[in-house]
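tool_log.txt
---
The assistant was asked to compare two proteins side by side. It first ran the structure predictor on the initial sequence, then on the second. Raw inputs and outputs are pasted verbatim so the downstream comparison step can read them without reformatting.
(1)
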Amino acid sequence: MSTHTYSYRGLDRRPKSLWGRLVARDSDVWRLDWIMLFAGLALSAIGTVLVYAATRNRTDINDGDPYSFATRHVISILVGLLLMAATVWVGHRRLRGAVPVLYGVSVLLALVVLTPLGATINGQRAWIQLPGGFSIQPAEFIKITLILGMAMLLAAKVDAGDREYPDHRTVLHALGMAALPIAVIMLMPDLGSVMVLVVIVLGVLLASGASNRWIIGLGLAGAGGAVLVWALGLLDEYQINRFAAFANPALDPSGVGYNTNQARIAIGSGGLTGKGLFEGTQTTGQFVPEQHTDFVFTVAGEELGFVGGGLIILLLGVVIWRACRIARESAELYSTVVAAGITAWFAFQAFENIGMTLGIMPVAGLPLPFVSYGGTSMFAVWIALGLLQSIRVQRPISA
C-alpha cells in the first residue's frame, strides 16, 4: 500500500483503520482499472445466466438440481475474485522472484496428468481428478507461469540497463522454457492449449523487442512442425476429425461435423434480438454438445441474438483494449511483456472460441474467457486480470 503520511495536529500518521486506508485519495484501490474490472464482472455475470440456461434442463448431469452448475459457476467466480485480489496484494514484482517455483509446480502438475491420476474428458487427458468430484486443468496455470517465466528471462538484462533488447542467448533460454510445457501438453493431447501457448510465446517475443528473425523463424518452424505432426500421425482421430469438419463443413453433418453444424444453427436462429432468455429450442433440446463450456456462445447467439452476442464481444474487446493500454504504459519491460502475453492469450482464445461456433475456426476445446463454465479456467483468467491490475497499480504516478 502507499507510504503517504497524513498530518493531524502536527503529527504525521497513516489512517489506522482498513477503511481509512482504502478510501485515502492515494490508495491503490483508486488506481485500479475499474473499466476492465467491470467488463470482466459483466462477462462473468452473463456467463452465469448462460450456464444456467444451458444446464437447467440437463437432468443427466445436474442431478435434478437446475441451479447446480450455475451455483458452482458463481463459486468459481468468487474464488477467482479472491485470487485476483491476492495477486494484486502480492504484486507482479514479488511474484517475479517466485517464478521458478511456480513454473516448476505447473509443469509437474501437467506431468501428473500423464499418470494414472489423470482424467480423460472429451478425448483429452488434460485433468487431474480430485476428491469430491473436483478436477483441475494444469494447462490453464501453465499459461500464467509461462508468461511470467519468459518475461523474467527476456527482461532481466534490459531492465537492469545492460542491454536495449534481449540477446539471442536470452531468447533461446526463453524458448527452452516454453518448449517443455508445450511438449508435455502435446502428449495429453490438448491441441487447443498448445495453440494458445504458441500465440503467447509469439506475443511475448514481439513485446520484448526480440529480433524479427526469431518471429519469422518460429513461424516457419511452426508450419513445418504442424506438417510433421500430421505426417507422423501424432494427432488423435478425434482431432483429425475436427480439422476435417472445419475444412469441409458439409462432411458427415451427423458425425464429425455435428458440433459445428448445430452451433451455427443455434446462432443463426437467434436473429437480431434472439428467441428470448430460456426460450432457445436448440439449447432446451440439448442439440449442441458442451454448451455450458466450449459452446456457451451459442446460447447467447440463440437466446439473446446478435445484440447479446455483440455485447459479449464488446466486453471482451474492452478487457483486451485495457490490457493493451496497460502494456503500452508500463515503465519496465518485465511489466510490458507480462501484460502483452496476457493480451495475446485473451485475444486469441476469445477469437478461437467464438470462431469455432461460427465455423471460421476449427473446434479446439477452448473455453470463452470469463464466460464458460470451468473452475480452473475461471481461476486462471482472474489471476491474469490481477496481474494486469498489479502492473497498473504499481506503475509510476506520472505514467
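(2)
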Amino acid sequence: MNLSKTKKRQLWVALATLSAIPAAQAGKGQEFDVIIDSGLSVNAGIGSAALSTARATTRDVGDRLFRMRAGLRPMTTTEETVVDGATDSKGGMSKTPITRTVTSMRCWEIYGSLFYYTENQDRQVLVVNQNVPGALRGTRVLGNPGTDVDIFGGNVGIERHFNENWSAGFAVGGASTDVDMSFFGSSDIDSLTLTPYISFYEADMLGSADFWADLMYSHGFHDFDLRRASFGGFASASPEADTDQVEFTTGLNFQSGSVTHGPFAGLRWIDGSIDAYTEVGPGAGFFPEQDIESLASILGYQLSFPIQLTGGTLVPQVRAAWEHEFEDDGNVLFGFPLGEPDEDVAVLGTGIGFYCNSGWNAVLDYEARLSSHVEGHYVGLKVGKEF
C-alpha cells in the first residue's frame, strides 16, 4: 500500500498520540481537552463488538419468529389407505373397498443457517465522571474510537413440534468477528453459542386474533485476539469472554384478506464479562475485567403476505420496530467512560420465505439497524427440512 507523505505523517502522529495514560490534546480551556489512550479505546471497541456478536448470532434462530409472524403452523402430511370392504347385513363382505385418510403433523425439523452482519459505530467523546480525582474531573475523553464490525456466522439446530400450540428447539451457533478500531487497534473474535428456546401459538385466542410468544436463552463463549497500537509498536493479548442472553418476544396476528399483520413486542437482556488480561509487546499494559450489559425493549408492526402455490407457500414479509436501550450509561475503565450505546434504534426488516409441501423450507431475511451513532445491516439465509 503506497501512502503519501502527508498520510504517513498523519499515521505516525496518530500512533505517537496513543502512547500513555493520559496523553492530553490541548484545546481552548479544560472543557475542550481530550484524553486519548489506545488501551481505553480498544476496550471500548471490543465491549460493543461483543454485544453486537451476541445479538447477531442468536437473531431469530431457526426463523421461528418469521414463521409465527406469518401465522404458519407445522406442516401436515395426508395418507390414504385402501382397506377391505365392511361386513354387509347378511354377514358377507361388501365389494366396495373403503379408503381411510389419515393426517399427521410433521413433528421434527432440522435446519442450518448462514448470516453476515456489518456495523459502523461513530466516534464518541465523553466527559470523565466524578470517580476520577483531581483536575481530570469533567475532562472530555475519547470513549469510543469509531469501530467497524464485520460478523460471519451460522447456526445448526433441531426443533420439535409437540402439538399445534407448543414447540421447542436447540441450536449451536458459531461466528467470526473482525473489529477494526482505525489507528487504535483491531481484534478478531471467535464465538460459540448454545441456544435453547420454546414457542407457543394459539389461533383465535383473542377474538379473531392469533396470539404467539417465544422465550429464548443463549450462552456464548468468545475468544479475543487483540492488537493495540502503542508507542513503539503493537501490544497484543488473548482474553476470553462469556455472555448470557434472555429474549422474550410476543405478538398478535390479524387476518385481512390475504394479509397477515399485527404488532409484536419483546425484551432482550444480555449480560457478560471480558476477562482481565495482561498484554505482551511494546507498551504492554494490564486491563481489569470489563462488564458488558444491555437491556432493550422492542416494539414493532409486521405485514406478511402468504401466497399459496402448487408446490407450497411463498411468504414475503416487511416489518418495522423501535428498540429502546435502558442500559444507556455505558461502561467505565479506571474511571474513564468507554462509550454510550444509543438509547433509541430504528429496526427495519424484510424477508421472503418458501415452505414446500415436501417439508423443505428456506428463508432469506434482511434487517437494518439505524440510530444516531450506529448503522448496521444483517442478511441471513436459513434452510430447513420437516419430517
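---
observation on (2): The radius of gyration is 27 Å. The longest helix spans residues 38-57.
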